[in-house]
């Protein structure tokens, strides 16, 4: 796809041509004509304007659990400062964040959910331009321990009530949910007894998922609901087939890729993409991890079993992480079904204490962050770029789907780049 | 379960008490009172009668592919004699046989199915007291090669037509079918291109299985239809859940256990039984293999890849096979959901040339055959046994579900042992 930008002598050719010459991402890029006129309708011909991208349509996300203690004043002094530095870096790179709703923490005492605290964090993140996802409404791990005292019927009722309550409470703030997590293993999970495995065993996977989705849709009919799993084998594909045949309204397929044991590589990633692309549903890569230190040995089956006192980030590890991050994001972006990639976690030392962040524990920015920034806000982004309108007041712009802004003579107006080829008419 | 057989001074206490003392099989055993009278209604009191079992309700089966060339006079001279010796042994042990319907062989030339030859074999086997199963109506392996020249729509039509034709043709002779085989891998099977993988990929597993079952039911509404797989993992369980939720009328779950790489052992067998018992459907162990020679190395993933010139049966291997056969059959019989066990194959040198038979290539009967015979027609069987009726003409008998015969004063009458406890009234 090569578009001759003949009317744009001042365009940032390097950037734009870079994007549109790369067929890999053609499904994410559109070339559009914008016709500019003044508020009085006069054609804005032969005029210099500046266009810039303000937002990606693609969801570049990251787990964001610190926001809750931060906005609820749990961080003090230096800790608070470090958190603020991290937020600045976070907001500069991402347009999407995953907020925790782990039932064991969110409602550790039955009837006392952390609605207020979580809502405060959600509002703050939204005010910083982030779209939010809630993680997760139903999961056998980190679930409410008090479910164990209930009958299966009561557990199911509590689970439905919880879904209805939280999805309703956060409507407008959080309209994307990991509705249910890790269903492939859910009924046969045998590490410890828990309420969710009990009801999944009794109802079966399909009936439980169906109930979870239907309750969440009832609470917020316009919510985007994901099923999410770390199992990327044919088992998950077979489960999805059963769910789809049963009419469960899955809006997107969530795929975890915690690569603590080493980068999948392009070949495995393409295999996974092929396996799940056939459902013709959006794919969300919900939990992406590449560590910048020691890899977890291959013989460890459950990552939670890897317990180390120290897990440092190393120079060689950070170099490897950066290279793998580039490869991973490029491979995923090249598949038209992928609509979201969420990094897990932003800073080192979170889940498993792993050096999985883009930032070290002492807030040093790693090469992976810089390299990803060069893609998301560089190669795949239209920085402020001068254009000259033609005799008809038109400019032709190419860019990734998303939000853009044109400014001219001290005035500015926003517009959206989607897949249509219609001319954008802008009065400025 | 201990029943005092006080009225039966002549009963074969050893045998009957052996059975009924063993709780493991209590779900397969019933204790019943039979009341005997003469044809004129007179009570047959204090009379000696002989009772014997004539058939197991449980399906003890085996693959039986030789019957087709045999009844169609393809065996001559010594080969024919050896086949006859094998049939004698076969019929003495089994009440159930699996006949081949591999599409590639059954209809190698489109429009010329081996109906006549196969029907002749089926009739002969039925006349020898065997219940029959057809294997298989839809499978990506050994399928008709001429499907490759068709569009997917045409392949599906040919598949449906084939099902309808063969299930209708054999109604009354064959009313049990492995309707579809190895669906877990079917759409992702990538060893070679074939028509069935093509349509399974396009339709999805659930839609294809649904169509296959519905066509077979249409052709023979009272047929017992199985789905059958070698994949005994949670993937198969998830597929079954999807099929059941989609309303596919599965009559029994078929589980293959080709143990060429070594006996599963009791623990794995119990795991598999637990995994599939939860569907509350009959379980048929459709393809059971334990070799009496070298095991296939664990690194071989597809058994078909193990190609050896000679694969001899050894003394140590035959001893091991016999012990494992006993353990395998006992483990399976102990589970109430299991209704059938089919051995694969009867004689050595069939699939893969493996020493998987109960009989060697030169017709020597292996210890496994004798040991299994001691169970099926010994421990689990009521041999001719004398009983004495009481004052009311009653005898009390315990035995495995199945068909029995009582004889008295040169006359004989058959009756069936099922799970009911009703008194059997017999006029003799």
Automatic annotation (TrEMBL), chains A, B:
<keyword id="KW-0624">Polysaccharide degradation</keyword>
<keyword id="KW-0119">Carbohydrate metabolism</keyword>
<protein>
    <recommendedName>
        <fullName>Beta-xylanase</fullName>
        <ecNumber>3.2.1.8</ecNumber>
    </recommendedName>
</protein>
<comment type="similarity">
    <text>Belongs to the glycosyl hydrolase 10 (cellulase F) family.</text>
</comment>
<dbReference type="GO" id="GO:0031176">
    <property type="term" value="F:endo-1,4-beta-xylanase activity"/>
</dbReference>
<keyword id="KW-0326">Glycosidase</keyword>
<dbReference type="InterPro" id="IPR001000">
    <property type="entry name" value="GH10_dom"/>
</dbReference>
<keyword id="KW-0858">Xylan degradation</keyword>
<dbReference type="Pfam" id="PF00331">
    <property type="entry name" value="Glyco_hydro_10"/>
</dbReference>
<dbReference type="GO" id="GO:0045493">
    <property type="term" value="P:xylan catabolic process"/>
</dbReference>
<dbReference type="InterPro" id="IPR044846">
    <property type="entry name" value="GH10"/>
</dbReference>
<dbReference type="InterPro" id="IPR017853">
    <property type="entry name" value="GH"/>
</dbReference>
<keyword id="KW-0732">Signal</keyword>
<keyword id="KW-0378">Hydrolase</keyword>
<feature type="domain" description="GH10">
    <location>
        <begin position="65"/>
        <end position="375"/>
    </location>
</feature>
